[in-house]
């Protein structure tokens, strides 16, 4: 089924004249024409560049150029706190605050290229620190505040973090105990009140608020490293995907085309900047497009979200399937009391979006959801349902102008593009778009493995239909998507193995109707330990304490032994097939089995 988007003239007729008059023409009005015309070389003209042709810096494109122009007094970030407190930062305010942060880093002796980690809830300081550090040409790595000490220590360790911005509470609970695993960490900047002690601690007001609001961004090569986003693979440690300042051209263009951002929009991205969507589309794309961005500190609550959409007159909304499914559970009637007439465009990302959810959007919000696809490594949206194109519910849409996507089959001698429609294969992108990762930090081999010839292989299985729409099929590997967050089974297994009773652990994603998948662990115990309800609870609590609620398993089952290959690798695929009652597939490499 294809449904017309409410921003096209066809369905504008359906929603009535008054509302149609308010709908601006989509930026990407004619997909085929724009695709034929578009070049990344031309796209740079949408940006300003640093004055005096000194290169491109993300913070200039997102903040300073607007602060120096007609958007200076426009609200850049409208922050809504958990307790209802509000703070508006105009583009001019944001310029001053980020200048102060950049000066504070210089005062600490932090040099360009050094890594600044940010472990904060969605507070204004998160946005200021992220953009201020980019001004100082430091590399920023945002961490999810629901991570436990283990993922934090691993990531700061790999990234050789020199500075960490956090709160006294998070520092005490999650950092202090693993600080010895972060030898590079020289400075911790603390936001908000609360007691804590340790070396190199600085309070935000004394350090940042007291710094000068004047700062000039030094020359920045668009190929300079700007962001380090950690993501997970099937095996090994988390991977730090490197993104450069020049990625901003893709953030800008995709904000314009895939999210259809117009200058008067009030935009709300519900993702946390601790994950790549919350940075690329919760900070960079909206600000580079000069819109007003809503930031909500509180976690999901359906009624609060409806009232935020209505009260803030949100016109473009970017959210995720788990949240949409939770809203659907309340029924379309829950939306009835809210005036959602400002909403023009709704989009979703991060996990497969059920076709019913697309249609439900139209019924409950008056707008269908536009699914789009990308991943940490791509830096920005690659495939999307666009405002001016028909949506095929269940499809991720079509590639952005400037992006070539294909379905490939691996061959011994390389890869082969699958030409026939609706044949499943690996989703691949022709390399070279500006926000493509430039490496995994210190992991050249893992990076090289992502490419075959000119193609970047995404690790997703998909198919393309005869009209050119792409359809997600599944992952080619064992990573888990839970509530939109990518979780590496190896990280969870390692934390479980730290427990003295655990001999082996195998972790899978178990399908769940709301969050997509939940993390489920299978554990074999060491001699002298017996399975019991008490031990199960102890292991769940141990994992939660080490990994944090976002990553820890929700279910643990005991096994006498776990199925392994001859080389000793736990066969997660088999654990999953058995859990779900699916065919066990090829067992030729199976060496030892469950008992
Ligand atoms: P991350 O790197 O954490 O953003 O996760 C990227 C992965 O999320 C992709 O490789 C897909 O497996 C999944 N993903 C992202 N967007 C979609 C979508 N629209 N439909 C299905 N899966 C998606």
Please provide a written account of the structure.
The protein has 595 residues and is α/β, with parallel strands linked by helices. It has three domains: 2-37 and 300-403, Rossmann fold; 48-240, 3-Layer(aba) Sandwich (Rossmann fold), CATH 3.40.50; 480-592, 2-Layer Sandwich (GMP Synthetase, Chain A, domain 3), CATH 3.30.300.30. It is 30% helix and 25% strand. The protein contains 19 helices and 30 strands. The strands form seven sheets. Strands 2-1-11-10-12-13-14-15-16 form a nine-stranded mixed β-sheet. β22 (455-464) and β23 form a beta hairpin. α5 packs across α6 (91-107), α5 runs parallel beside α12 (276-288) and α6 (91-107) crosses α7. It is globular, with a radius of gyration of 24 Å. The relative contact order is 0.10. Residues 4-20 have low confidence and may be disordered. Residues 231, 276, 349-352, 371-373, 375-376, 396, 458-460, 472, 475, 481, 486 line the site of adenosine monophosphate.
Structural domains: how many? 3
Q: What is the strand tally?
A: 30
CATH superfamily of the largest domain: ANL, N-terminal domain
Structural class, by secondary structure, is alpha/beta
* Shape descriptor: globular
The major pleated sheet works out as: 9 strands, mixed
Average pLDDT taken over every residue: 94
Radius of gyration: 24 Å
* Helix share, percent: 25-40%
Uncertain segments are 4-20
What fraction strand?
Answer: 15-25%
CATH topology of the largest domain: Rossmann fold
Regarding quaternary structure, what we see is single chain
CATH class (first level) name of the largest domain: Alpha Beta
